[in-house]
Write a structure and sequence with these properties.
By secondary structure, the chain is α+β, with helices and mostly antiparallel strands. It has one domain (about 10-230): Glutaredoxin (3-Layer(aba) Sandwich), CATH 3.40.30. The chain has helices at about 10, 15-30, 30-45, 75-80, 95-105, 110, 125-135, 150-155, 160-170, 175-180, 225-230, and strands spanning about 65, 70-75, 85-90, 115-120, 140-145, 155-160, 195, 200, 210-215. Strands 2-1-5-4-3-8-9 form a 7-stranded mixed beta sheet. A two-stranded antiparallel sheet has the order 6-7. Strand 8 (about 200) and strand 9 form a beta hairpin. Helix 2 (about 15-30) packs antiparallel against helix 5. About 35% of the residues are buried.
Length: about 230
């Protein structure tokens, strides 16, 4: 029998928490910056990337370094223990990502009660993942995916355009440093790669049971939907 969903985080939809971030941002940020951000989201959505994500079949396997101790984590080892929930996130600089991961932190015991495991994957360095774990008290692995190589296999990876790079620089978000320890002058194309925020459930046989990704970084998968999919396995 599935564990009861008695955790408060399941009764406060994640999207309501994220919408509050958006409301506060719109109240504080200059209109021209807001307009550019809106255009950035619209342009990514218009590429149709959401429709091209991997949604069925066998999930790509991976071996990535964990921010806890820098050890390599293999997806095959995790799947030997139970179904796997994978969260792809952009980085610790994104408040939407951190709100999402904090929700999963609060729901981690509920997830483990279903014998499932949880990992989060981003292009940020192992050092940045270690900072994230310590700052937010995360109990699950944060894995480093250099250049979004694994995210690419899931159909989630995209490159930040030149125009958008200047925007991130103007708001002091140094993505190349976060992803590769590089400054703007030495940044490589690989260091400007990001994944769509996404959640996957992978069955123990390696097949994809659930897949959802969003080109609008302000929209995320509801944990309640993930629990419902786990309960249906």
């Amino acid at each position: 029998m599935a564990a009861s969903l008695n955790n408060k985080s399941l009764h406060t939809p994640l999207q309501e928490q994220l919408d509050l971030i958006t409301q506060n941002t719109r109240a504080l940020v200059q209109p021209e910056r807001l307009a550019f951000s809106e255009r950035m989201v619209a342009e990514l959505f218009s590429t149709g990337i959401e429709d091209r994500i991997l949604q069925a079949g066998v999930a790509p396997s991976f071996s990535l370094q964990d921010g806890h101790h820098g050890k390599t984590v293999n997806s095959s080892d995790l799947l030997a223990l139970g179904p796997l929930v994978i969260s792809f996130f952009r980085g610790r600089w994104d408040p939407y990502c951190m709100t999402e991961l904090e929700n999963w932190r609060n729901l981690y015991s509920e997830l483990r009660s279903r014998s499932a495991l949880f990992v989060a994957i981003s292009p940020q360095t192992t050092r940045q993942n270690a900072f994230t774990i310590d700052q937010h008290g995360l109990p699950f692995p944060l894995l480093t995916d250099p250049g979004c190589a694994v995210a690419e296999q899931f159909g989630l990876a995209h490159s930040v355009s030149q125009e958008h790079r200047r925007y991130f620089q103007s708001i002091l978000v140094n993505i190349p440093y976060n992803n590769a320890g590089l400054n703007y002058q030495t940044a490589t194309e690989e260091s400007w790669r990001l994944p769509l925020p996404a959640v996957y459930i992978v069955r123990q046989d390696g097949s994809i049971a659930f897949a959802e990704a969003h080109a609008d970084h302000r929209v995320r998968t509801e944990p309640a939907d993930v629990f419902a999919a786990l309960d249906a396995l």
